[in-house]
Amino acid sequence: MITFKEDVLIEDHQRSVVNWITSNENLATFNNTTESSDTSREAFACTFKRGDLPETLDFFRDTRTNIYNIIGIITYNSGDIPEHVDDDLVWYMKDLRIPEIYIKPPNTTCVYYARVPEEMTGGATIFKCKNTITAPAVDNSMVEFSSNIPHSV
Q1: CB atoms within 10 A of CB 113
Q2: Mean pLDDT across the stretch 13-20?
Q3: In 3D, which of 12, 14, 2, 28 has the Cα closest to residue 109?
Q4: Which of 1, 98, 105, 138 is the most buried (most CB within 10 A)?
Q5: How far apart are CA 61 and CA 73, in angstroms?
Q6: With bands split at pLDDT 50, 70 and 90, how would you rate the model's confidence at 38?
Q7: CA distances from 59 to 26, 50, 116 (A)
Q8: Contacts (Cβ under 8 Å, ≥6 apart) of 99
Q9: From the CA atom positions of the chain, what is the Rg in Å?
Q10: What is the pLDDT of residues 93-134, one digit of tens each?
Q11: pLDDT tens digits, residue range 42-80?
């Protein structure tokens, strides 16, 4: 199931999320998923237990979830993200040799578009289901979907 929501946060909270992303200490240049030389972006990934999720990200909180793998991406120019499923955390846990009984693929993925530049083209999340479904890149919107659905940008 794929759901799309607009006007997710009030303006002050939206600004708080943008500030949290843009000032994140782990933010670094990121361009390993595209061959486009025009791509200019920074990104980070961090994982939180439910009780450690920053208050700024409370809107992601879900009773079915106890681990949150947050990926923040700031795109300055252009860039794509090739088709994938969201299983990075599963592979990380396997690399740590955590017993399989404790590893469960993520239930859902949420993509939150905090701020989308007006001049930006593209940026939509494209899902490969029985039919191709596209969730547009809209300022302060969120798309939620099963993590095992192949998707790209």
Answers
A1: 19
A2: 95
A3: 2
A4: 138
A5: 20
A6: low
A7: 21, 12, 19
A8: none
A9: 16
A10: 777 787 877 666 667 888 999 998 887 778 899 998 888 999
A11: 888 888 889 999 999 999 888 888 888 888 888 876 667
Would you say residue 39 has pLDDT above 70? no
For tokens 């486009």, the residue is 36
DSSP code, position 84 = B
Kindly state the tokens that stand for 138. 């809209």
Report the b/e string of 118-129 with b at 16+ CB within 10 A. eeeeebbbbbee
What DSSP letter does each residue of 73-141 carry, written as one string?
EEESS-----SB-S-HHHHHHHHTT--GGG----SEEEEEE----TT-----EEEESSSEEEE---TTE
Instruction: Please report where in the chains the tokens 């909270």 appear, as a residue.
Output: 13
Q: What residue type is assigned to position 27 of the chain?
A: L
Does residue 75 contact residue 153 with C-beta atoms inside 8 Å? no
